[in-house]
Amino acid sequence: MIQEYDKYVDEDHEVWSILYKRMMEILPKYSTKAYLQGMQAVGLEGHRIPNFNDCNAKLSIITGWNIYVVPGLIDNKPFFQHLSAREFPSSTWLRKKSQLEYLEEPDMFHDIFGHVPLLANIHFANFLSELASIALDHIENEWAVEIISRLYWYTVEFGLIREDGALKVYGAGILSSSGETQYSIDSDIPNRVPYDVKNIFATPYIKDKFQEQYFVIDSYEQLYKSIPEIKSVLEQELKSVAI
């Protein structure tokens, strides 16, 4: 599949612009520096839908990653295969104006605006491909995939980072939601705890409301360097289940 860029109509570009401007009104305050730098690096703009070919030409030079077009949600195995190969799966369809406030299935805005900028950070990019490789090693084990998915959820999708003494957002699920962006940092409701592999493995994820708990990293290097620990804790967990 390819992104058929010429088939986007004016409303598509307008929806992208509305969502982009809404998020950029708050992200300079809430988002990690690496995300904002990544937006510039891959060339995301507010007036038009990004052309994947243009983004890939820049991103592949920086970290070796590319955007890979998929029809929508895909199964675990091909999803992790693409990530392991440094290909980020993205749909090419965009929500309509009537869907600005709620969307059940992630669209291109979530995939590209939320995820792609941080792929320009080498430590985060390496973490993601290595995590996917671990998942592939255990892809036939449903419990292994479940707890690895929890780690993906609480880092790649809903992670926070402590940056210059302040909490910032790096998870794509937060960055593509103005409501959860502000909630994750400003609200007194959720718990914010240090990044801990065992704790994350024991924490089911939430899909139908804002998160009750966020895990906070100190750096993207810390995230990448936790790969050996992830492998070790996973093996211990699988052994305990087998007994």
Short descriptors:
about 240 residues; alpha/beta; Phenylalanine Hydroxylase; four-stranded mixed sheet; 6 strands; about 10% strand; globular
Shape summary: globular
Main sheet properties? 4 strands, mixed
- Structural class by SSE content: alpha/beta
The CATH architecture would be: Orthogonal Bundle
Characterization of the model:
This protein is an alpha/beta fold and 243 residues long. It has one domain: Phenylalanine Hydroxylase (Orthogonal Bundle), CATH 1.10.800. The chain is built from 13 helices and 6 strands. It is globular, with a radius of gyration of 17 Å. The termini are far apart. The mean pLDDT is 95.
Short description:
By secondary structure, the chain is an alpha/beta fold. The chain has a single domain (5-242), classed as Phenylalanine Hydroxylase (Orthogonal Bundle). It contains 13 helices and 6 strands.
Please specify the SSE layout and strand pairing.
Blueprint: H1 10-24, H2 27-30, H3 33-42, H4 52-62, E1 66-69, H5 76-84, E2 87-90, H6 108-115, H7 122-137, H8 142-157, E3 160-163, E4 166-169, H9 172-175, H10 178-186, E5 191-194, H11 197-201, E6 213-217, H12 220-225, H13 227-242
Helix pairs in contact: 5-7, 7-8
